[in-house]
Amino acid sequence: MNYRRLGSTELNISEIGFGAWGLGGDKGGSRAYGPTDDSESLYALRRALDLGITFFDTADFYGFGHSETLIGRAFGACRERVIIAGKAGFVDAAGRQDFSPAHIRASLDGTLRRLNTDYLDVYQLHSPPAELLIRTPGILETMKELVREGRIRSYGVSLRSPEDGITLLRAHKVGCLQVNFNLVDQRARADGLFELCRQTDTGIIARTPLCFGFLTGQYPDTSALPESDHRRRWSKEQVERWHKAPRLFAGALETQRPQTPAQSALRFCISYPAVTSVIPGMLTPAQVEENAAASGLGPLPAETISEVQAIYEANDFMGRK
User: Confidence class of residue 231 from pLDDT cuts 50, 70 and 90?
Assistant: First the structure.
């Protein structure tokens, strides 16, 4: 496993991280990827650390605390070996948000209790409008206060869009940004966020690297998914756009065999120096082993990256045209 420094922070984290949204399951009416098995989730978390994955990304919204509870159970006895990133902002399944200082602090109290720890390595605001952070300076000031109090080591923002990241960085300095980035969603690169993060020494956590399963080569019929799987609610048009992606990229990635489609997708993400860590969602030990191995395979060749970028530019995967 290779490791990278997270922006201007002092944290060195594994370039393959663990996205723990799915571990929350359907607790409390949460919608992720359907029901989960806690014993298997704990095995997956511990297997990840065995393989050198040290970065674990969660949120109080994931299973309404259940994801955090599992991470606390898995690593309570070895807290110093892992880097945990949490989030605050969502308050219910309807998507209502609260970024008041009181809510941020109360959320952190609950997160630390569930994680069985007295500090958080990275605390992220969960999908706030960038303009809200700019016109309400008390929000980021609260995050700075938590650093000074020793309750968090650093803070960042989990973005709604790359555009929000650009808007935010032009007004404020943060340690890291979390953003969607994968073969079919390259907006963070194409729109200039990567370059701005390089200039400002801001770490990037790349989420959805497997595009919700579309890039694994094993994506199921959405109508057959559990009711609590959020993918059931996607539009037919979006599903069709992403369903064709593996076939379109197959030619460019064929020379990289015998790697799996998932490993190709992860290698694409870590090919960019701007990306500190990529956080695929993982539910089983087998998925952990497959994804962790991508680090040892290294970045994709420059010519492959160029071909992949050209395919992205020639197709409207995001419905922007």
Answer: low
Cβ contact 187:318 at 8 Å: yes
- Position with higher pLDDT, 219 vs 316: 316
Q: How far apart are CA 179 and CA 279, in angstroms?
A: 10
Q: What 3-state class would DSSP assign to 158?
A: strand
Q: Which of 85, 1, 2, 5 is nearest to 276 (CA)?
A: 5
Upper half-sphere CA count for residue 193 (Cβ side, 13 Å): 27
The CA distances from residue 136 to 2, 103, 148, 149, 160, in Å, are 38, 15, 20, 21, 18
Dihedral-angle region of residue 89 (phi above 0 means left; psi in -120 to 50 means alpha; beta otherwise): left
For residue 276, the model assigns a pLDDT of 99
* Residue 254 pLDDT greater than 80, yes or no: no
Token code pair at residue 236: 């037919």
Q: Is the pLDDT of residue 226 over 80?
A: no
- Helix 162-169, helix 193-200: angle, nearest 10: 30
Domain segments of the chain as ranges: 3-314
pTM attached to this predicted model: 0.92
Determine the Cα–Cα distance for residues 3 and 276; give it in Å rounded to an integer. Answer: 8
pLDDT at 246: 84
Compute the C-alpha angle 41/46/50, nearest 5°: 145
Specify the CATH number for 3-314; select among 1.10.287.3610, 3.20.20.100, 3.30.70.270, 1.20.58.2140. 3.20.20.100
β-pairing, 12-14 vs 3-5, is: antiparallel
DSSP H helices in the chain? 38-50, 66-75, 101-115, 130-135, 138-148, 162-169, 187-190, 193-200, 236-243, 245-253, 261-270, 285-297, 302-314
Decide if 313 contacts 71 (C-beta within 8 A): no
Please, which pLDDT band fits residue 94 given cuts at 50, 70 and 90?
Answer: confident
Would you state the structure tokens that stand for residue 40, as one six-digit string?
């298997």
